[in-house]
Amino acid sequence: MARRVGVPESKVSYWKSGARMPSIAECIQVARAFGRPPLEGLVGAGYLEPDEIADQVVLRPGGLSDVSDVELADELLRRTLARDALQ
């Protein structure tokens, strides 16, 4: 595992024994080394809860002109409702 991830064997031993947790960057590195999504690594290490990533993250290249009017209106409504809930 250490060779595949690119870290010293001692570091993996610490992780396995529970003496130290991998950093967030190391969790992502491990996930990628095994062909898994980085978020899965963060959940596995306890940095995130499964319900925190229940909705898939969608990245959109470009700017607002690439977003449909419906998507833009939905986002504005979501933000307005969230703000109103805090007041």
From TrEMBL:
HTH cro/C1-type domain: which residues?
1-42
GO terms (molecular function) for this protein are: DNA binding
Q: Output the Pfam families linked to this UniProt entry.
A: HTH_3
Q: What is this protein called?
A: Helix-turn-helix transcriptional regulator
